[in-house]
Write the structure tokens for this entry.
Amino acid sequence: MNKIGFISLGCPKNLVDSEVMMGQLQQNGYQITANAEDADTVVVNTCGFIDSAKKESIEAILEAARLKTNGKATRLIVAGCLVERYRDELKAEMPEVDAFIGTSQINDILSVCDPNTNTRFLPVIPLGNQSATYLYDESTPRVLATPSHYAFIKIAEGCDRPCAFCFIPQMRGHFRSRRFGSIVAEAHQLAEEGVKELILVAQDSSRYGEDLGKQDALAHLLRELSHTDGIEWVRVMYTYPTHISDGFLDVLAEEAKAVKYLDMPLQHASQSVLKLMKRGGNRASLERLIKRVRGRVPGIAVRTTFITGFPGETEEDFNELLAFVRNVEFDRVGVFTYSDEEGTPAFELPNKVDPKIAKRRRDRLMKEQAKIAKRKHDAMIGQTIRVMFEGESNESELLWQGRMETQAPDIDGCILINDVPEDFAPVAGEMVNVLITEALDYDMLGRIVD
């Protein structure tokens, strides 16, 4: 039996693509192995979003090529966003790769992994903004690569936003939503498999259903999924600030399984920088938005991301962003330094910011957010909260860990658990009550109570 090893890089949307490819291969008799060194064929599903992600992808390809040269592997396949972005360069510079498939060629995975296929003559089909049509559905086989208690559901593909720093529309094509019934059916299938948390992802989740002529479709979808038997939590990631409807917020407030958590990348607060980013808005409008969100959904956690060092960002612009973060007091914040990406409008902008200054601003912003997070966590000491148990901690074999509903996996902190009742053995995905005893910058410590 031909063993296939997968290396999946980048975002959860890319992980879903890997899961779909693994599902198709497994359904057709291939064996999926978690150990690439034991594989006959290695598939690297790449990310091409920013410079650090591209470097990681190249390093992964080169490592897989070494496995092909020195190990068991006889075939190397490279897929994903990096292929869409640099198909010609990769084909010219990496003859050791047997086949390249883009983001719209997920279904070609069977052909390129077939030992009888002469892969060097298979074309990499250019995506083109209007030619992208691929969407998986509820009948598409998937092999989940996440822990058994949660799974991502991709509700849409592609993006039509004009953000100046982003190459995703060229890599993923125009925005297109999955059918409502298809997503609901997949949710039921995942629940039957024992999944407890559904995490809805897309390049722009808040626009879900617009291209299908449906109004407030994300709110309707979230409400429907919140009634799925066996599911404890439904989480939405990657929303856009101009599309946060009252209907959507009402679902978060009213439905117990719709977690009170808003992931909304804002990127900046200075009007001049937002204009250069082609996003619009200003600090005042964003503060009104956050006030509306918190007023409509009491107890909601708001997560966002920012970019420091965008071309033209002055010290005054950064100070406005810093003041914005201090004033709003976000629950979760991620900060990236600007990555100058060829082919994006921002690449042509003047007044580039020195990378050292961008990093210094990033560090200042993260230091400020750490103070805010610690203050919020200190206020929770002595509270008993509902937590999804996840098993042994990543920090230490002596601890367990879990997450409250306002913590998304991998990107947010967690609840470290140092004590459980005698003869109590929770399993991953089980809901437990945890008394918070200590606060850290990004995590909290507690013990399970009856």
Notes: The CA atoms of residues 203 and 423 lie 44 Å apart. The chain has three domains: 3-121, 150-378, 384-449. The first helix runs from residue 12 to 27.
